Amino acid sequence: MDAIIEKRQNVANLVSNAREIVDRAEKEKRSMAADEVEQYDKIMDTIDETKKQIDRMEKIANLNNELDQPLNEPTRINPEGGQGKAQNKRATDEYQNSFNKFLRSGLNSLNSSEIQNMQSTDDADGGFLVAPEQFVSELIQQVDDNVFIRQWARKFSLESAESLGVPSLDQDFGDADWVSELRTGQKDDLKFGKRELHPHPLAKRVLASNKLIRISKIGIDNLIRERLGYKFGVTMEKAYLTGDGANKPLGVFTASNDGISTSRDVATGNTTTEITFDGLIESKYSLKDQYQRNAKWMFHRDALKQIAKIKDSNGQYIWRPNVVAGEPDSILDIPYYMSEFVPNTFSTGNYVGILGDFSKYWIADALNMQVQRLVELYAETNQVGYIGRLESDGMPVLEEAFARITLA
């Protein structure tokens, strides 16, 4: 923890150095010189890399804390059937062991009963084998750790790729009326629409050497889950931000009447090429107070380089690095997060950031993840290929909980 605090203090010092460059140019009433711009950008890049190191260190610290916690009491099954409901076969140790045998040695290592239990189709060649629930749950948890929006969104787990209806209030009724004792007030219609989340297929192939599979101490299932988790996570985050909703999630930066319409675009105060203090103020206060309490900014690092130079009317920088371990940095007293997948083209009409309560982004995951093992295709390189197929969907369900920052 001391190391994390030290790195956070280093960030604070770097921020101070960057601000000295900006302040010097302002004091001399001139633009920053080319060498000053280069120096400023280098400092900001160092800050970004240090913050990534801090994030990794904090995740490891949190994991260690979890490992120090006592294990839950194992579930005991009454042999006479007194547990209350049937146990899901995909959650059993036997299923997990069969799946590990398949990952390590292939389909031929399984007996006919194991194949039948794990098979996703009636294909004579075995089709895809459905992963154990624990494997899928831990994979999804690793995906959450690799991307921001999944950590904040409301998530639903479906047994299969069925659809999840999302109720939306398309037309609300007016306020109550002051009436006499025998009157009931004005009649208004309450109309509901319905949007659907339908998990869409997502696939990724990873390779592992036969030697690694043979000698791996962490278990081949952990190794495959770790790599698939990262690869799925990157693709999902891109879709949650910029996906068009066609056989993939609908992103928050995609203008759509099914998600966030252009009515939630905030350009007031911004220029055609830069985010301004007034623009950020407009965005913040376009959200109702109940959304601001849980809101977060998301920007590309190029946008943060701009914002780091902005001062309020009192000459105070609005970007505030936090030296407290575990606490995020903030802009206008709201935490911000950086993603390489946020749009960063600074020209008229483009999106360059978002503020929102991301619990109003819903995600539906299908738990019937499938894994296929490929041997002959990579025999020449002494490797085995694994194709993982996961099904997921996502979309913003309440547009008033978001404000998209747009250039004028």
Structural description of this entry:
The protein is an alpha+beta fold and 408 residues long. The chain is built from 11 helices and 14 strands. The strands form 3 sheets. The chain has a 7-stranded mixed β-sheet with strand order 6-14-11-7-10-9-8. Strands 1, 2, 5, 12 and 13 form a 5-stranded mixed β-sheet that branches. Helix 1 (2-27) runs antiparallel to helix 2. The two termini are 43 Å apart. The relative contact order is 0.15.
In a few lines, what is going on in this structure?
The protein is an alpha+beta fold and about 400 residues long. Helix content is about 35%, strand content about 20%. α1 runs antiparallel to α2 (about 35-70).
Number of strands: 14
Order of strands across the widest beta sheet?
Answer: 6-14-11-7-10-9-8
Helix content, binned percent:
25-40%
Output the structural class.
Answer: alpha+beta
Residue runs with pLDDT of under 50 for 5 or more positions: 70-86, 121-127
Largest sheet: 7 strands, mixed
The succession of helices and strands, N to C, reads HHHHEHHEEEEHHEHHEHEEEEEEE
Measured by DSSP, the beta-strand proportion falls in 15-25%
Mean of residue pLDDT values: 81
Q: Mind telling me the C-alpha Rg?
A: 26 Å
Count the DSSP helices.
11
Distance between the termini: 43 Å
Using the alpha-carbon principal axes, give the shape: globular
Comma- or semicolon-separated keywords:
globular; seven-stranded mixed β-sheet; 36% helix; 408 residues
Question: Which SSEs are present, and which pair or pack?
Answer:
Blueprint: H1 2-27, H2 34-68, H3 93-105, H4 112-118, E1 129-130, H5 133-146, H6 149-152, E2 154-158, E3 164-171, E4 191-197, E5 200-209, H7 210-215, H8 220-242, E6 265-266, H9 277-284, H10 289-292, E7 296-299, H11 301-307, E8 319-320, E9 330-331, E10 334-338, E11 351-356, E12 361-374, E13 383-396, E14 402-406
